[in-house]
Specification:
297 residues; four-stranded antiparallel beta sheet; six-stranded antiparallel beta barrel; alpha+beta
Length: 297
């Protein structure tokens, strides 16, 4: 009986060891990494530099601001709207200045009347002086009064012109021919200079440019006129051929972070500008991130 018990114990222990081995093996196996949903872009150049880029309007985005703080009374701009240089984008509340303008126009009318009266007195005394019926001093006084009236009229005209010029500052106009990219202000809101978000953002989007950030450690490999290709995020089947514009001659801290685990927030970059035609079935949008490959030649 003891022999059977020892054999049973031996085989039970052996079975336990085998089960433990199979359990450890099964849990130590690394599952295969599934393929990515979208294949990463491939460098088309035999020797090239990879970088990230941010799409901008041609000649960069234009943040249209206001000259002073004021209540917005009218917004004429709408997203996707094409505007010409000088078109009205928005208006600020100018009621106080328009009331002042009414007073100044009335004052101008008074000054014109005073000048008219002074001119009539001067001309009448001049005719009387010719017949020696009036003292020369009175004629001189009338001449001085006429000059004072002329000066008062000129002053009133200058004040009116100044107010009209200030009124024009309440109208915000487009500085360029462009497309409205963003409208961040509404009627009744207060607009102020230096706001974090510009009231209106403009840009030319028929042709776009890409601001490419090249890590400063490989910046010396970039050459002027180097060919480059860009890929939209998640779209590796439609490369965008790029045309070289310029190299920015100033190394700056990187501002556009892609979220890569290898990316550092203290990275300094050389910015290289390329442009391309925004045409075809697939549109590219301002602010879109792209992968850029620059030929190393």
């Amino acid at each position: 009986m003891s022999l059977l018990l020892r054999r049973f114990t031996f085989w039970a222990a052996l079975l336990g060891l085998g089960s433990l081995f199979l359990f450890v093996r099964a849990n130590s196996e690394v599952p295969p990494i599934p393929p990515p949903l979208v294949a990463p872009p491939e460098n088309p150049f035999a020797a090239g530099i990879g970088a990230s880029g941010l799409v901008e309007a041609l000649r960069e985005n234009t943040n249209v601001g206001v000259p002073f703080s004021g209540l917005v009374s009218e917004v004429n701009a709408a997203v996707w709207q094409r505007v010409r240089k000088g078109d009205v984008l928005m208006r600020l509340d100018d009621r106080e200045l328009r009331a002042q303008l009414v007073t100044q126009r009335a004052d101008l009318a008074v000054r014109e009347a005073e000048l008219h009266r002074a001119r009539r007195v001067r001309d009448r005394l001049a005719r009387i002086l010719a017949s020696n019926a009036v003292a020369a001093q009175e004629a001189e006084t009338s001449e001085d009064d006429h000059r004072v009236a002329e000066a008062q009229l000129a002053k009133a005209k200058a004040a009116l012109a100044q107010t009209e010029e200030l009124l024009d500052r309440f109208v915000v106009r487009s500085p360029i021919d462009a497309t409205v990219l963003q409208v961040n202000i509404r009627v009744g809101e207060n607009a102020s200079p230096g706001a974090v978000m510009a009231p209106v953002v403009l840009g030319s989007i028929d042709e776009l440019q890409i601001r490419t950030d090249v890590d400063e450690q490989i910046a010396s490999r970039v050459r002027e006129g180097a060919p480059a290709v860009a890929y939209r995020k998640g779209d590796t089947g439609a490369p965008i051929p790029l045309t070289f514009v310029r190299i920015e001659p100033y190394i700056v801290p990187k501002r556009s972070l892609t979220g890569s685990s290898l990316e550092r927030v203290d990275t300094r970059v050389l910015q290289v500008i390329y442009r391309f035609k925004n045409e075809g079935d697939i549109r590219t949008y301002v602010g879109q991130q792209v992968d850029v490959f620059i030929g190393d030649s």
